[in-house]
Amino acid sequence: MRQIEQEHYDVIVIGGGQAGLAISYLLKQEKINHIVLERSQIANSWVNQRWDSFTLNTPNWMNLLPGMVLDPKEDREAFKTKEQYIDTLVRYAKEHHLPVVEQCEVTAVHSYKEYYGVEVRYKGTSKTLSANQVVVASGQMSDFKNPLFAYSIPSHITQINVAEYKNPTQVRGNVLIVGSGQSGVQIAEELAQTNYTDKGQLYLATSEVMRSPRRYRGKDMMEWLYLMGVMDMRMDELEDVNISRQTQPQVSGVGAYGHTVSLQSLHKMGVTPIGKLVTSMEEGFTFSDEVKQHIAFADKGSEQLKLRVDYYLEQKNQLHLFPQDEIDEADCPNVNFSAAGTRTALSFSAIDTVIWAMGYQASFSYLHIPHVLNEKGFPIHTNGVSPQPGLYYLGFPWLIKRKSGIIFGVAEDAQTIKELVCKYRNNAG
């Protein structure tokens, strides 16, 4: 494991996930003196914040970092397991001798006239490093918290955050999963297919989340989005900025080539989709009565994606080359809303386990620099560049383009940030 060998660096990178490793590789190619500070271990979020059966939601060809090529032995359209991708990142750091220091937590970053001061907790002691430039590559999925309600949830109910969920042995009895994004529907599917302890009712509290068919007309939908240029859309090209805030669509990478997962497919497995969790009352949870709208929203999103592909192929006069021969039952619209549960309340006595699958968040409170965070505590930036000279961000959703928030966008964004680092360095030197 790499050690801290000096106190000053040209660049300090915060975070040892795919974004931090990508920028480190490029900085090393430029022979720029830098260090990557990782609070836990390489690929920490993949190691500690994903469940055991987790697979990537993007096929192998979309998961290449700078300097990587697809192994000829790998199926370009298959999906890596969590363990396989962790191994990929660890080997990447080792093979390229990237200067990653693990178990080194950044506790504060200060800006001075000509450099940044970076305070860290390393080997049980506090230490202060300095750098000319800083790249925050810790992403926006490094922390989590459970919601607070007016009435506390009784102690007999086991509460598990999605980042803490590992496998069905953690749950028992009647289970409420809160959140119908990728994590929520994938965990619901796993529990539906498992005979866990005292298995009972499975409830899924839903919200407006799009669904994507896994495959359409012979290709993974992610490949169609790439070919149509959707993945390269920039924030300033969006007609509605709310698109950038949408939850990742319901879909799964489990199986040889992944599969479609929908509220109706879950219902057929024994899951009861209900409305959005509103709050807790004295006797239990209350939910909206919008589950039918949520089913319709997901169905409409999937149909719109397929129509977009059809239009793209029609414009190229290639629709006949990509027939849709297979029927994807999980993607068939639930026109009669047979999957919709009717409950708008659940008593605490009716629930044994709650899984909070409401997404991740990140804290940037260690950035002790005026005017770099907004009122919600998130970084202010334009295409990854802070208004504070020499400070950059990497690995955020919609950082520069739509693909920025997934592995597929990291290499291109890292190249952009690397060029800015070099330009700043040359101008300063």
What would the keywords be for this entry?
8 helices, 17 strands, seven-stranded mixed sheet, 429 residues, alpha/beta, five-stranded parallel sheet
Report on the architecture of this protein.
The chain is an alpha/beta fold. Helix content is 24%, strand content 18%. The chain is built from eight helices and 17 strands. Strands 1, 2, 3, 4, 5, 6 and 17 form a seven-stranded mixed sheet that branches. It has a five-stranded parallel sheet with strand order 7-16-8-9-12. β13 and β14 form a beta hairpin. It is globular, with a radius of gyration of 23 Å. The model has no long low-confidence stretch (mean pLDDT 94).
Low-confidence stretches: none
Q: What's the helix-strand series?
A: EHEHHEEEEEEHEEEHHEEEHEEEH
Give helix % range. Answer: 10-25%
Q: Gap between N and C termini, in Å? A: 32 Å
Please state the structural category: alpha/beta
- Largest beta sheet, briefly? 7 strands, mixed
Share of residues in strands: 15-25%
User: How large, in whole angstroms, is the Cα Rg?
Assistant: 23 Å
Query: What is the overall silhouette?
Result: globular
Quantity of strands, as a count? 17
Q: How confident is the prediction overall: mean pLDDT?
A: 94
Query: Count of DSSP helices?
Result: 8
Quick recap:
The protein is an alpha/beta fold and 429 residues long.
Secondary structure blueprint with pairings:
Layout: E1 8-14, H1 18-29, E2 34-37, H2 44-48, H3 82-95, E3 100-101, E4 104-111, E5 116-122, E6 125-136, E7 158-161, E8 175-178, H4 182-192, E9 202-205, E10 215-216, E11 219-220, H5 221-227, H6 263-269, E12 271-274, E13 277-280, E14 284-287, H7 291-315, E15 345-347, E16 353-356, E17 391-393, H8 407-428
Helix pairs in contact: 1-8
